Amino acid sequence: MGIDFDHVIWANEHGFYCVPAEFAGRELPTVLARGEVYEPATLNFLCRHVGKGDIVTGGAFVGDFFPALRRAMAASARIHSFEPAPISHAAAQETIRLNALKNIALAPVAVGDKPGTLPLQVARKSGAHVAAGVAINPDLSLDDDRVIPVEVVTLDTLVPKSRKVTVLHLDVEGFEEPALRGAARILSDNAPLVVLEAGKPWKQRLFQAVLREIAPEAGYRFCGEIERNAIYRAERS
Fold it and tell me: Residue 168's domain is classified under what CATH number?
């Protein structure tokens, strides 16, 4: 199936990536254009710790983590991912196709603490398009011409209860807390390793408090930071 936007195909040691032309100049596409790996230490950490289970990872952006993760996983395991921005979702789907990847479920949704519809900001106040930094902005109304409505689901709904999740990795542009609250069942039942974009100490403390609140029996503890990503390990694994 073809894609209907200008794009380039970049490659690194892990595979091939579809990158929309309008994303040029952003950090991740610039890294891929040099043939390098974005957040290589984080990616290696996820690959080493996924074990034989599934990984939940998102937002997917252009699917740059998919090739390496898929190779590191057991053949029967799955990647559960999501990407609400239409052009990024299409690019990630093309990345999956380019690398002939199997067992990846990529949904065109955002994740939160309850189902619904929220505004995804795709343009700035000036009207300029937001290239690669689109994000949920609950302060804007759904009829604002800077947003598009996106479906929001919980991770507990997105991932079947029958699946064993060993890693939960989220980079959702400041929407991590609602996403975690929508994953209470996954966290309680599976006690996965949790990796969250959290470059500031107050965020690291907040996320630990949320994890302990919604999955107290797991005993989550902050274990350090890799490339602005906070690592939380459950005492019960």
Answer: 3.40.50.150
